[in-house]
Amino acid sequence: MCGVHSNEYSEEFEGHWLGRFEESLEEFVYPKGDPDAVTISGRDVELLDPGVFINDTLIDFYIKYLQSEISESRRQACHFFNSFFS
Q1: pTM of this prediction?
Q2: Which residue among 11, 45, 49, 64 is least crowded, i.e. fewest CB within 10 A of its CB?
Q3: Domain count of the chain?
């Protein structure tokens, strides 16, 4: 079972984006309203447990998160790719 559902985990990550998940997590869309938003499911969150391989959805989420955290001028100097290749 994923640590996201335990009180200990929630307290540890209070204020962090992971701490926003609730036990009834079905989907988390980031960033909301973006046509290229990434949808994280409860199963994706369980993959964040230690010793478990993450998937492309989690990688794409983190790319989107990093993209939103850097300054606009820095963002213009970078190109962000998703991890899904056709």
Answers
A1: 0.64
A2: 11
A3: 1
